[in-house]
Amino acid sequence: FDYAARIGKDYGSQPRVMILGQESKTGHSVLTEPEYSLEKAGNEHYRKTLFTLALILKGEEPDNYSKDTLKRYEPLLRNYCLTNYYKCTFSRDKDKCSGLKHSKAMKNHCYKLLLKEIDVLNPDLLIVQGKFTSKEFWCALDNRYGKGERVWGNKSEGADTVSLYRHARTANPLYIIYSYHPSAIGCWSRTKDDLKTAIIKFRELFG
User: How many beta carbons lie within 10 A of that of residue 71, not counting itself?
Assistant: First the structure.
């Protein structure tokens, strides 16, 4: 099964935000859109992603992650792009794709497809939700967009760290927040304040 990016109807309004997860549970080989309703996609990932979008696009921090609280921010789900690091899964059952072991070929090649998505979609901010990316991916970013500069965050990328990077890029900088997936409840909760600080710093730099 293949995974293509999910692009919101209003993606393109600045800042352009791309959310990067590790993998998807269901395959879709063509471009689709994220779910726009918390009634259809009210899981922890979508709710905390919407919480994050409120911080980025509105500069507002919702009181909590409940559907009722986040309801007023639902229109923001049209303003971002959701994609995955691994672009394919080998399974006979489309409903049993998540959690499968990634092959060596996927590790060596899927990030190259992600780089092409970044080229085409030209995000201002890429939020990496998890510590699954390879050294090859970061080296490729440096080669493509200029060496990344850590503009906020810990010097060590060990446990419980969130960092903000900036790649100069020719037309406009590419900012990257290296964080945790919302479903990693412990890590995400412990680093929520750091994520907020990284977003505030991005908003200052982006203007």
Answer: 13
Q: Across residues 115-121, what is the average pLDDT?
A: 94
User: What integer is the mean pLDDT of 49-71?
Assistant: 95
Q: Note the pTM of the prediction, 2 decimals.
A: 0.90
How far apart, in Å, are the Cα atoms of 196 and each of 19, 29, 173, 202?
Answer: 15, 34, 20, 10
Cβ neighbour number for residue 161 with a 10 Å cutoff:
17
Q: What torsion do the CA atoms of 115, 91, 32, 166 make, to the nearest 10 degrees?
A: -30
Write out the H or E segment, with its range, that includes residue 166. strand 163-167
> Is residue 179 a contact partner of residue 52, using CB atoms and an 8 Å limit?
no
Where in 12-153 does DSSP place strands (E)? 17-21, 80-84, 125-129, 149-153
d(CA 147, CA 165): 10
Q: What angle do CA 34, 37, 42 make, to 5 degrees?
A: 90
The identity of residue 74, as a single letter, is E
Instruction: Report the C-alpha gap between 27 and 198 in whole angstroms.
Output: 32
Q: Which residue, 171, 121, 174, 112, is CA-closest to 148? A: 174
